[in-house]
Amino acid sequence: MYEVERGNDMTIQIENNKILDFVEYVDSFYNPATGIYPITGATVEVITKAIKTYIAGVSESEAIYQEGFVGQTWGGGDTVDRERVRDLILENPECEVVE
User: Fold this and answer.
1) Exposed/middle/buried for 22, CB within 10 Å: 0-12, 13-18, 19+?
2) Does residue 57 contact residue 69 with C-beta atoms inside 8 Å?
3) What is the mean pLDDT of the chain?
4) In 43-67, which positions are buried (b, 16+ CB within 10 angstroms) versus exposed (e)?
5) What is the pTM for the complete model shown?
6) CA-CA distances (angstroms) from residue 4 to 1, 34, 40, 79?
7) Residue 93 CA neighbour count, 13 Å, CB half
8) Which of 22, 41, 65, 66 could form a disulfide with 77 if both were Cys (CB 3.0 to 4.6 A apart)?
9) Read out DSSP for the chain?
10) Among candidate residues 11, 96, 91, 3, the one with its CA nearest the CA of residue 50
11) Which pLDDT does position 78 carry in this prediction?
């Protein structure tokens, strides 16, 4: 079980296999060699780091509002989650969309 403590007694719990499935899902879209929408520099490590950042930020708490994650919640690894993780990947200066 992957747990993220959010303060105010809030904890997000996600099964490890769902995290692994989500990493594979994101990689299938943004892998620089094989992805549908390749991003240079989007290694599994970069993707995993972006996912951890995203999961740590999802919630509806006031702390999230202050961090810029207004009202975002974990959608179970859906398309919206993937696109939000993509945006975090693209914040990495070594990553850019392959034209």
Assistant:
1) buried
2) yes
3) 81
4) beebbbebbeebbebbbebeebeee
5) 0.78
6) 10, 31, 29, 21
7) 0
8) 22
9) -EEEEEETTEEEEE-HHHHHHHHHHHHHHH-TTT-SS-EET--HHHHHHHHHHHHHH-SSSHHHHHHT-TT----SS-HHHHHHHHHHHTTSTT-EE--
10) 91
11) 92
d(CA 81, CA 98): 21
Place of tokens 């079980």: 1
Number of residues assigned to the chain = 99
Residue with tokens 């995203």: 54
